[in-house]
Amino acid sequence: ANTLFDIWIKYKPRLPEWYYNERLVKVGDTLAQIKEYKLALQQCYERYLQQFVSVNLDDVMDDVQRFKSAFFPNGVRDKNAAVMFHVLQARNVCIYHVVCSRDRNLRHGESLQTCLNVLTSLRLTMQVALPQEDLCWLIYNGTIHIYTICRHLMVMGHSAKVLEYLLWASICMESSIPLLSVHYLTWRATLYTAVSQCYFDCQASIHGEIFARRGLIKIDELKQLEDISSSLGHTEREKIFREATLKMSVMIFKRAVYESRKKSNSFRRESKLNPRKAVNVSWPRTTTERLLVAMFDGAAAQFLAILEALPDRSRNLLPSHPPVPDEVQIPEVTSELFSAGLEILSGNSLKKQKQLENIFVITAGEERVSGDAAVKFVKLAFSYEEWNVFYSAFEFVDHFLQAQDDPTWKKAELELKLLTLMQPVVLPGRFERSFSFSEGGKSKEGSIRRGSEKTKTIRSECCSESLKPGDPFRDLMILAKTTFSCVSTFEQNVHPGKEILVDVVMCLWQKCKTELQQIQKSGSHCLEYMHKHQAYQWVHILWIMNEIIEKSNIADTNVMFAEITLCLAAILENVADS
């Protein structure tokens, strides 16, 4: 930063003003491309803007007239206006990335407010540029930046705060004539989908459906114009319209699958399908499946609709629990969605119509389900406690994952194995199944409960042989040691995701917390207490939890992890004093 500062100070008086400003912006763009956002912000973009505005830059961002008079004194048609628009937009993007670099999860109110200020500033810049057709590139880039920031905030639970900005981005795409072409339709449909999702997140599903239907109307209007005259090939054009229509249809299905059941006066509670017996029943088998078939063609589209209809952004992977809505029909629809998804994963929905050997592909196609979507489905089944679906889907997906060599799929395989290990910890004594996994070139075997009558002996090198079936530490120790092995022995790009590692550690902590606090309270009698109550294993698990936190760099993701570390430190001090 100091070197760059010295360069600008040294060469500014020696260079023509236009050339200096051009270099200033280009260096900033280069720094932003290599993700040196703070340097680009302070030493390039803000340095450029400060030549025109002597006051705090943020002070002129709340009023359109002050904004125009400060940055565009000669009007937006001036030859330097395009560069000014670019710098203003790039500055906002850099501010956002600087905030994310120090507070990615936006835990501090100041970070969230800065992101909202960035969105407001981007909107203001686009508002001034919108009447100029030759600045359509700025509008398009602005919608991308707004969408990127808003999606981040939506994941963090701030959908209500970003809805207005996504609506603005959508309207901008419709208001700029060059951006109304079919070439930009896919992106416009993505923005429509984000707006609808925002409404769903805000518990305003009816508005989400209305906006999706409005999107369908806009898409149909463009299609009618394109049918008259189009520069694109027929096949390419049809594909673009089909994908855009699919996105809108999925958002409509997201509400319709539940609302149609609520409104039906002739609703009869259909018996829940057993996934292992459903193979003999013809597809479509339920009301939900019939709606899927009516609205979507192909397994990929139907599976996408199922995934979008299931997720609840307020739901974490743990603690797992079935839906608890006000209407009795909702859990029934949820179960039918899972059953339909499992039928598609098994390939039965297509095999009954044509021969199909493999339902999985790396990327989604007309009649294939992507590997990413299948993995997401298994995780959702775990979260909703749809255990029959979870284990049946796990078998299909695991066979696919084991045949892949890419580290991404190995990571997904490990995450699903950790879920199967978590299940008996979350709901002990309910299930048991066996599986094997590879670690350091050695094959290891383990088993997961799947019904107390089918309990099997565990054979796993990651678990002490002294832990017998029925031992209260057995499942906890298997989960802890296997997770520790995953973050210790595999390559970094194969490690399970931080989200699932956080869930594993929190699950272990909740199960061990009470016993560990009792050990901690025993003070100088710590060793005596552990010997009397055979509590050494609790401390061992605590140590493993701490090692997982340290090796996976998740210490800053949850304040509870500090409590785990402090508990271990206190117990070790008590042991030293005993």
UniProtKB/TrEMBL annotation:
Which terms does the UniProt entry file under GO BP?
cilium assembly
| Source taxon at top rank | Eukaryota
Stated name of the protein: CFA54 protein
What organism is this sequence from?
Melospiza melodia (Song sparrow)
What's the short name of a Pfam family annotated to this entry? CFAP54_N
Q: Which gene encodes it?
A: Cfap54_0
